Structures are given as C-alpha cells and as structure tokens.
Amino acid sequence: MHWGTGAAVGALRGIWAASGLRGVRASAWHASIRLVTDQTLENATGVGSPPWTWCRRDQVVDVTHKVVYALVTGAVADLLVPLAPDRRPDGTATGPRRR
C-alpha cells in the first residue's frame, strides 16, 4: 500500500511542478496530502490503526518519513519536470495572446 500511495501522490507532486506549484510550500502541502492519504487508506482498509492510538515515537517516525519523502520528491520534481507551456517561471498562466 505504501508504494501505491507514494507513487500516486508523487505523480500529483509532478503535476503541481508542471503547473508552477514548486518549492518548499508545495512540498509542505505534499507532505500533508501524503499523510492524509496514507492514514485514510490504511484505516479504511483495516490495515492500520488510528494515529492517536500510536505511541509518540511511532507518530514522530511516521511524520518524519513522510516529510523527508515530500521534500525529496519535491526537489526531484522541481528539478526534472519542466513547466507546462502555458506557465511563466513564477507559476502564473501566460493567458491568451493579444494581437
């Protein structure tokens, strides 16, 4: 399950990079999306237990792993994924051309 959710949410981060959502702020959002997705799917399928039942150490380890994953994925996506053709380097849309 971790590989599947990691790949799916990682692809989302790549789409964000192409659309101009880059940098630490996008990686922070990515970490929160990764945590929510992981916990929702694990609890919905009965594979995991709710995080509030975990010991503090397990919570810290889980959040730390997700944050490191998000930062590394974000750095790679920002480096390798080019901006979409309709985006400027600041992430804004170029809009229709005027003649």
Structure description:
The protein is mostly helical and 99 residues long. It has a domain at 21-80. It has helices spanning 2-18, 23-45, 56-80. Helix 1 (2-18) packs antiparallel against helix 2. The protein is elongated and about 60 Å long.
Mean pLDDT comes to 89
- Strand percent estimate: under 5%
Helix content: 55-70%
Count of helix runs: 3
Structural class: mainly alpha
Radius of gyration using CA atoms only: 16 Å
Q: In terms of quaternary structure, what is this?
A: single chain
Number of strands: 0
User: Largest sheet at a glance?
Assistant: none
- Could you tell me how far the N terminus lies from the C terminus, measured between alpha carbons in angstroms? 51 Å
Assign an overall shape: elongated
Low-confidence stretches: none
Order of helices and strands: HHH
What is the element layout, followed by pairings?
Elements: H1 2-18, H2 23-45, H3 56-80
Nutshell version of this structure?
This protein has 99 residues and is mostly helical.
Structural key phrases:
elongated; 99 residues; single chain; 66% helix; mainly alpha
